[in-house]
Amino acid sequence: MATTSTGQSEVPEAERYILLAMYTVVLVVGVFGIGLMIDTLKSNVRSVTTMAVLNLIIVHMVFLLTVPFRMYFYACGHWSLGRGFCKFISVMIHAHMYIAVIFYVIILVVRCITFYSQRDRLEFYRRLHALAASLVVWVVILLVIFPVTLIEYGPDTGASTNQCFVFGEALKDKATAAINYLLCAVVLLVTSVLMAIQLWILGAIYKKHGRTALSHQEFSAQLKSMCFVMVILICFAPYHAFRVYYVATYFHETDKLILKRLELKNEIFLAVTAFSACDMLIFITRARWKSILSWCWICS
After folding, report:
1. The pTM is what?
2. For residue 199, what is the domain's CATH number?
3. Fewer CB within 10 A of the end CB, N or C, for the chain?
4. 247 within domain boundaries
5. Could you tell me if 101 and 232 are in contact, meaning their C-beta atoms sit under 8 angstroms apart?
6. CA distances from 239 to 8, 124, 180, 270 (A)
7. Residue 148 is part of which domain span?
8. pLDDT tens, residue by residue, 69-109
9. CA 204 to CA 210: how far, in whole Å?
10. Structural domain count, the chain
């Protein structure tokens, strides 16, 4: 899971500004969406979906704290905060991506279960059980997965200390390449399966209610589920599809110019994954959007 440029070469100015703009949008819109979601989220915390969404918000918040450091690097064109901290910031975008996928899958699976079981929501027996389940997930992430990833991620290849995210050489290792292929295959397969299931559910609802389906709450709820699938499809699938080609080429290619161009493309695809931090906008109701737009109109 390595990224960006080789050697001591700086990221070209055009790409730096593109990446800076992308991360700026992610930070502003992500913070805005989370702020509104925290303000409006008043659901039952025993609900499995609600707890998954709350955990997803925490994941986004932690990731967004690291975004300003990426913006700093792309704005300045150099890194002066130490190699270890660079490694940590680089790991965080990957950690955010895969942890977010886990919670997306939980949310979508729970919504599928409630649809087929004809229940309003799937709940834990007690609030303590909900907190315990979240704690177990975070213990595994923080005490097992994250430390191992941080230790094994991005071996030192002698790159300039003024540059950051210079971990492409790790892909020359067969084990690292194999892990990347496996992750790509899993994410793309999960995306395809979730998309197929969600389309089938929407089709079943439309078949049941006909033209009046759009006015049913059941259909609206499943549209939100489809929005989560679309977040995975738009933000994560392109990166992993390109990643397969990127890893295969990097493993065999020796031309540094070709590798540099590939790494820049990979970094842009990676930046697209960060837009998943804006997903809380899915939950903002039409009435809330009207009040926000009215407030903006008054302020202007």
Report:
1. 0.84
2. 1.20.1070.10
3. C
4. yes
5. yes
6. 25, 35, 12, 6
7. 13-287
8. 999 999 988 888 888 888 888 889 988 999 999 889 988 98
9. 10
10. 1
